Amino acid sequence: MMGGLWEFPGGKIEPGETVEECIQREIYEELGIFIEVGECLITIDHTYTHLRVTLTVHHCRLLKGIPQPLECDEVRWVTVDELEDFTFPEANSEIIAALKGVGEMRTVDG
């Protein structure tokens, strides 16, 4: 239902996994890079007509590798201002607003 939209990399927490471990695993699986997970930027609870999601967003730092589109069609490094040029699922609007308060480079995949 949300095909063709851009999103920030991430995914579901596995049993016994912390949020930070999930982020590291998902980023490696989706982009093939190693990251350090920093402090939490924002947590969002959002209800779509067909599902409810909780998005926990952390600051991260690239440690090793070059992002590759392993589980998506394309990866882009963009500035916060450029995020408005991409169509995201509705729940991501709060993430983008929070990022605008930070002003650093971010990666998106689609």
Describe, in short, the structure shown.
With 110 residues, the protein is an alpha+beta fold. 19% of the residues lie in helices and 32% in strands.
Commentary on this structure:
There is one protein chain. The chain has 110 residues and is α+β, with helices and mostly antiparallel strands. It has a single domain (19-109), classed as Nucleoside Triphosphate Pyrophosphohydrolase (Alpha-Beta Complex). 19% of the residues lie in helices and 32% in strands. The chain has helices at 19-31, 93-100, and strands spanning 34-47, 52-64, 75-78, 106-109. The two termini are 14 Å apart.
Number of DSSP-assigned strands: 4
CATH fold name, please? Nucleoside Triphosphate Pyrophosphohydrolase
**Count of DSSP-assigned helices:** 2
CATH class: Alpha Beta
Strand order of the largest sheet: 1-2
Distance between the termini: 14 Å
Number of structural units classed as domains: 1
Query: What is the chain-wise order of helices and strands?
Result: HEEEHE
Global structural class: alpha+beta
Measured as a percent range, the helix fraction is 10-25%
Average pLDDT value?
A: 91
Q: Which consecutive residue ranges, at least 5 long each, have pLDDT under 50?
A: none
Biggest beta sheet attributes: 2 strands, antiparallel
Please indicate the percent range of residues in DSSP E strands (runs of 2 or more): 25-35%
Query: What CATH architecture would you give?
Result: Alpha-Beta Complex
So, the CATH homologous superfamily?
Nucleoside Triphosphate Pyrophosphohydrolase
